[in-house]
Specification:
This protein has helices at residues 5-18, 23-30, 34-41, 49-59, 63-68, 86-110, and strands spanning 113-127, 134-145. The protein is an alpha+beta fold. The chain has 2 domains: 5-68, lambda repressor-like DNA-binding domains (434 Repressor (Amino-terminal Domain)); 86-145, 2-Layer Sandwich (Cyanate Lyase, Chain: A, domain 2). It has a two-stranded antiparallel ribbon with strand order 1-2. Strand 1 (113-127) and strand 2 (134-145) form a beta hairpin. Helix 2 (23-30) packs across helix 3 (34-41).
Length: 149
C-alpha cells in the first residue's frame, strides 16, 4: 500500500475488507469509536504514532501509510455541490429542512453561538423496530458562545 492521497482511502478500505474487520472491530482494538476510525480512513482525522502503528499491524500497512495516517488532513471531503449519494444526501436534506429550526432551538437554550465540531463526538446506533430498524445518530458538541468585544 502507498500513502498517495488518491489511492490511500481505497487501499485502507481494501485492507480492512481483506482482514474481514469492521470499523467497530478496529475501534475496539484501538480503543476508539468506530466513527472516529472511519474518519481516519477517509482522511478526516489524525492518528497518534501508537494508533497508526497498531492499525498498521492489524491491516499489514506499509511504513509510508502508517506515517501518512499521522499527518494533519484537510478537513471536509464533500464537493461544494449537493451530494448525490442517497445516504449522504439525506443528511443534506435534514439540514435543509431542520437546520434553521435546530439553530433556533440551540440558541434559545444556549445563547448566540455554535456547536463545536472539534470538541465533538458522534455515535451511530441501530434500534430494532418492528416497523423497520431505525438509525440513531447522537451528536455531542461543546457549545461555543460568540464573544463580544
Amino acid at each position: 500500500m502507498t500513502a498517495n492521497q488518491d489511492t490511500m482511502i481505497p487501499a485502507l478500505l481494501a485492507a480492512k475488507k481483506a482482514k474481514d474487520m469492521s470499523f467497530a472491530d478496529l475501534g475496539a482494538k484501538l480503543g476508539r469509536d468506530e466513527v472516529w476510525v472511519a474518519s481516519l480512513f477517509y482522511r478526516q482525522a489524525t492518528a497518534s504514532a501508537d494508533e497508526a502503528i497498531q492499525l498498521g499491524e492489524l491491516l499489514d500497512l506499509d511504513a509510508a501509510t502508517i506515517a501518512a495516517l499521522q499527518e494533519f488532513p484537510t478537513k471536509g471531503s464533500l464537493d461544494p455541490v449537493i451530494p448525490t449519494d442517497p445516504l449522504i444526501y439525506r443528511f443534506y436534506e435534514i439540514m435543509q429542512v431542520y437546520g434553521m429550526p435546530l439553530k433556533d432551538v440551540i440558541q434559545e437554550k444556549f445563547g448566540d453561538g455554535i456547536m463545536s465540531a472539534i470538541d465533538f463526538t458522534l455515535q451511530v446506533d441501530k434500534e430494532e423496530n418492528p416497523a423497520g430498524d431505525r438509525v440513531k445518530i447522537t451528536m455531542c458538541g461543546k457549545f461555543l458562545a460568540y464573544k463580544k468585544w
